[in-house]
Predict the 3D structure of the following.
Amino acid sequence: MQTANDNITAITSTEFDSALKPENDELDSASKAEKDVEAEKCLSIITLLSEDEKEKAARTSYKYLVASTSATSKDGDNSEKPPPPSTEERDKYAMAMARRHLRAENGNEKKALQKMRNTIEYRDKMKIDVIRQCFTKNESDVTPPPEEEEEEEYQYHIDNLTPNLLEGKLFVRGYSKDDRALYISRAHLFEARGYDTEWFLKYNIYTLERAIACTERATNGEIEKVIAIFDLGQYSNKVRTPLTLSKDITFCLRDHYPERLEKVFMIDAPFLF
């Protein structure tokens, strides 16, 4: 890939194209015995969770989230609803979250359990399920409409997320050759409105969650990691992310989205990188 400025470095189009090729050994890298041990550890972790924690852990999967909310009916609603997911299905999706944290902690069950609980707490605090559903809650024919209080919360998030979405600062577009969604950030566009301390993190979370959802749908849940691309063309100190917000994003990804990024590309990166 050529750049207009010789002082700007970038990965070449050949390198980028090659980097997006699937790695066939991702799902087969561990031996059957290792996978069995890992599954036993994950089962051990979720048995220590409360029923509410298991439900929230399972809802990190979009397939489970849609299935569980679609099966919910309001009082007096006699319309036909699909059956709710079984306990076995819930535990299967909760184990997927446990597996991600277990791998991030190099097989340490105690640490993985604590990090998993911290993430469930964090997701409640940040209202991540509201972030994920705010634009679609009223569009579903099967999901019941939100209560009045919920409706206000959804609208509040729509009103604050929409301006950044319309400006195309962060978005999900396209897939790698093995169907990983591409999560794209265009740093220089943040200059126009600056960095909103309250919503910058939520905006990133929304876009990452969309990429995760697209990848899960495209691969039927077989692949969990997405690809992040940072377009740093026209990047300057004027649009540099404040250090506190950079730390917030870094800690969020490290602690609450383990095993979710396959690769990170920086395109047209200046020398300061």
Q: What stands out?
A: The longest helix spans residues 197-219.
